[in-house]
Structures are given as C-alpha cells and as structure tokens.
Design goal:
single chain
Length: about 100
Amino acid sequence: MEKYNIFDEIPVDKSEERFFEIFKNETIKIEKIVSNGQKSPQNFWYEQEKNEFVLVLEGFAIVEFEDFEVELKKGDCLNIKAYQKHRVKFTSLDETTIWFAVFY
C-alpha cells in the first residue's frame, strides 16, 4: 500500500496543465489535474468514453457544455456522463486550480 497526499507536488506552471495519475485499472482511472489559467483550445470538445466525476479542491473553473456552463469553486463537484460534450472554458488566473478526477 502506498500513501499519497493530493496536495504534494502542486506546480505553478502557466505554460501547461499537469496531470498526475493516482490509480488506474481496467475500469477506473483517478487523477489529479493542476491548472494555472489553462483552458480547452477554441472549438475543442471532450467526448470521452467514460463517465467523469470531477471535484475542485482549490481554485475556480468554468466547465462549458453545448448549451450551458457550470461554475465550480473549491468543494464543488460535477458528474459528467460519457460522451457528453464539454470543455474547460476557464481556470483561475491568480491561483492554482486543483482538480480530483475519477473516470469510470
């Protein structure tokens, strides 16, 4: 068994978003995502094969769907169904946004 602290290794990198795989098997993947103002490219949409549960541990973000958007602050979570088109419209510019994501 390996202990992991979600708040270890929080890089402040304005040039790229960072992804840290915490656990993965055939049915589930858990990762930490660290954003510093990054957002999805213009006209880019995720349409993933798996459901995605996201929890914002720090910071602020806006997740955009085809006909609505959801603002997420510290402690907010969202369950995104498989193949539901979505994109990251915004992440905090002045503080790091830390996501906890479960793909299942």
